[in-house]
Amino acid sequence: MLATKNDAEMIRRPHLWPHMYLPLKRVRDSFLETAVVEGLTEKGEVVVHENTTIFGSVGENENRVVYPTPEAVVAAGWIVD
Q: How many CB atoms lie within 10 A of CB 64?
């Protein structure tokens, strides 16, 4: 288990995710945005579906963003929810 909160490390460890997808959140322009991490590619890229929740539909390419690394996800303002 992670001793400290480290969002990038949590993204890297799907076996620790509380659901099939990892929920994310960020605040932009005073609005709360939600997303989920679908998974990691073989190259270590992170597949994120923005503007959805773990209860929403995931799988369509709409709102799908591929970040090069877990650190890039965190740099974009996302934190594990």
A: 14
